[in-house]
């Protein structure tokens, strides 16, 4: 499964290709789905471009995207959008239009409560497990682990060489991941190497302007659709030489 991450915490300073309004997010989502994306992750934005969990902004954003595409749409619940855990819960309780799923970063304060409320409201949970944090350890001990939609294995190492090693370490730390599907992705300099690793391992992945502003050849990406098309090609090429978990040949002994 190829997910597109439309914008992340990017701003207008990151270039005109980054969609910041509901209308531009919807158009970008449509282009990405046409290019092969089968799931959407988006950060709704205030008029000044700040990530938000506002019920009003969420409703407008989700409605605009759903008017253009027929695939699942998820949002962030990152602490930067609402730092206070209690206020974050109040925002989610007030949502009038629900996303299909929402990411919860397990290393952040209030993650368990946020995930529990989302599940109570019928929203799928993507468990965001970041490399370089205690997220994997916390998730392993969580009673909610078996209930999440999927695990987002998020490699924060942006060095093209180091990111692959960090990804392998993160997957090892996740272990069985409560038996849930794993989506592996990197960011910036690590985005393409980690996407190729996901292809070799046969894991779901994602690409989009949240994770990468440049195409594999180094050219600036003109749209999320361009990134998804390139990501699908890179994934397919890597998958053609598929290997088993953590890089061992498929079927080999540990």
How far is it from the N-terminal to the C-terminal residue, by CA? 26 Å
Spatial order of strands in the largest sheet: 7-6-5-4-3-2-1-8
Order of helices and strands: EHEHEHEHEHEHEHEH
What helical percentage do the residues reach?
Answer: 25-40%
Strand percentage lies at 5-15%
Topology, number of strands: 8
- Low-pLDDT segments: 243-254
Task: Report mean pLDDT, rounded to a whole number.
Answer: 94
Query: Radius of gyration, rounded?
Result: 17 Å
State the major sheet. Answer: 8 strands, parallel
Query: Which structural class best describes the helix and strand composition?
Result: alpha/beta
Q: What shape does the CA trace take? A: globular
- Count every helix, treating DSSP H or I runs of 4 or more residues as helices: 8
Pfam family, one: BKACE
Protein name: 3-keto-5-aminohexanoate cleavage protein
């Amino acid at each position: 499964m190829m997910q597109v991450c439309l914008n992340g915490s990017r701003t207008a300073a990151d270039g005109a290709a980054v969609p910041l309004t509901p209308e531009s997010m919807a158009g970008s989502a449509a282009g990405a789905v046409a290019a092969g994306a089968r799931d959407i992750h988006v950060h709704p934005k205030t008029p000044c471009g700040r990530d938000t969990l506002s019920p009003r902004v969420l409703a407008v954003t989700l409605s605009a995207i759903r008017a253009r595409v027929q695939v699942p749409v998820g949002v962030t619940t990152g602490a930067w959008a609402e730092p206070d855990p209690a206020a974050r819960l109040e925002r989610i309780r007030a949502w009038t239009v629900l996303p299909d799923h929402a990411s919860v970063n397990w290393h952040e304060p209030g993650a368990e409560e946020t995930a529990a409320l989302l599940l109570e409201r019928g929203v799928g949970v993507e468990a965001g497990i970041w490399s370089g944090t205690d997220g994997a350890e916390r998730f392993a001990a969580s009673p909610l682990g078996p209930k999440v939609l999927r695990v987002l294995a998020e490699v924060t190492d942006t060095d093209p060489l180091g990111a692959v090693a960090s990804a392998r370490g993160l997957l090892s730390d996740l272990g069985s991941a409560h038996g849930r599907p794993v989506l592996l992705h990197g960011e910036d300099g690590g985005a393409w190497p980690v996407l190729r690793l996901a292809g070799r391992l046969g894991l779901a992945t994602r690409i989009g302007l949240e994770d990468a502003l440049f195409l594999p050849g180094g050219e600036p990406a003109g749209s999320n659709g361009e990134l998804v098309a390139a990501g699908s090609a890179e994934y397919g090429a890597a998958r053609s030489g598929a290997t088993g978990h953590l890089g061992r040949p498929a079927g080999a002994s540990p």
